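Take a protein:
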Amino acid sequence: MEHNDISLRQAGRLLTDKIPTVNERETIAEAEAFIIKNSKELETINYIYAINEKKELKGVLSIRELFQSPKSTKIAEVIKRRDVISVRPHTDKSRVALLAFENNLKEIPVTEADGKLLGVVTYNKILEILNEEHVEQVLKAAGINKFEKQAESIIGASSLTIIKKRLPWLILGIAGSTLAAGIINYFEGSLEKIILLALFIPAVTYISGAVGNQSETIFIRTIALDRNFNILKYLKRELLVWLGMSIPLSIVIFTISILLWHTLIVSLTLAITVFISILVSMMIAVIQPWLFAKIKIDPAVIGGPLDTIVSDLISIIVYFSTATFLLNFLQ
């Protein structure tokens, strides 16, 4: 059965049918003889695939199991009570690689809806998929996306194409920096009273950005691997992580600041900002990709530059708002 509508990203385009298949009623000796006789024509012999008269996949056994089993044993006896992991022709290649990774498999069989074996996605293909997906995620994290085949296109792309992919995000970065400058200028009064506040802007934005990047990376990986993902359960865990990180970090930065600069307002501002901005960054890093995933948009396409801008702006607003409040309250 042909599938003309299968895309390059789907299992049906990646499979090979040059694989060892034996009838489940045959013996181990007959299967061994088949492998030895046809080994040169087979593309892979990592596993032997047991089928019935309708060519439906009934089970799988490894080459080691084949040669370790008694010669007179029926194939059906070796494969009984064993679940078979397989995919359909239209299964996305990233799902194929994930199944291989989760189940420690060298190959993934591809079957029709009725169980008919079409072929397998081999170990080499799975490695290619993992490499392409890794390159794609790295490029997307840098704001370079929309290549049809990321791993190959980015290498052979022209200078103009690269500029088109990267320039919009850098322009967005300039816009974000301009907005940040406007926010700082708005709090000029606080800066004039305590110029020391300006020295800690890089520290505040770094901590917020670093925590946000960590949280988003872990979250995107989690929703990709966890089939039973629950957003509320995950958010509860993130709140505990926030408390576990923000409290010690706030204490550390308060202590260092008060010992070196002896300014209570600056030290309190730093501690409160770190405490609040870590929470905000973690929540944005979780909720934003989750919402994008809900509307069927790859969370990685959001891009690292956009996340950095958002976390920086929020951190600066929290920082100077806290400083302004403390200045009015304590002075």
